[in-house]
Amino acid sequence: MDVTIEQALNQAIEAQEKGKLKEAAQLYAKIIKTDPLNADAQYNLGIMALSINKVEKALPLLKNALETKPSEQKFWISYIHALIKGHQLEKAKEILLTAKEQGFDKEKLNSFQEILSKKNNLEII
Questions:
Q1: With bands split at pLDDT 50, 70 and 90, how would you rate the model's confidence at 125?
Q2: Is the dihedral of CA 41, 46, 49, 52 positive or negative?
Q3: In this structure, what are the phi and psi dihedrals at residue 36, rounded to the nearest 5 degrees?
Q4: Which pLDDT score, from 0 to 100, does residue 120 have?
């Protein structure tokens, strides 16, 4: 890359905000190729995929972001959302419980608990 990872990430975010999704996706992909552990690029590309209902593409990206930066609450929330959207309800329940154990915002997580309960009558502690 002719620019730094940080510069490329900023360019990708700017392109995404301007609705230039193809450009943003290409930049995120280049960042991930150069820096496979870049959680922000993984997360943003995963969110883009999720927004166009490409759950199968979003899930590994969001999972990688979460595993790389487990202290980031939005990574947990987005991964749980993607799991629910992908009908992986048991896995979503498991990740939700782990997020609660980690002490993340219970109010936000409770909304997922309600969704899971309605979708599959799953009881979550």
A1: very low
A2: negative
A3: -60, -20
A4: 62
Contact 46, 77 (CB under 8 A): no
- Our measurement of the distance from residue 124's CA atom to the centroid of its chain's CA atoms, rounded to an integer in Å, reads 22
Amino acid at 59: L
Tokens representing 49 are 């995929």
* Residues 23-72: tens digit of each pLDDT: 999 999 999 999 999 999 999 999 999 999 999 999 999 999 999 999 99
How far, in Å, CA of 30 to CA of 43, rounded? 14
Query: Which whole-number Å values give the CA distances from 57 to 82, 105, 118, 125, in the listed order?
Result: 10, 27, 26, 30
Sign of CA dihedral 41, 110, 114, 98: positive
- Reading the block at residue 69, the tokens are 């930066």
Distance from C-alpha of 124 to C-alpha of 111, rounded to nearest angstrom: 12
CB atoms inside a 10 Å sphere around CB 2:
5
pTM: 0.86
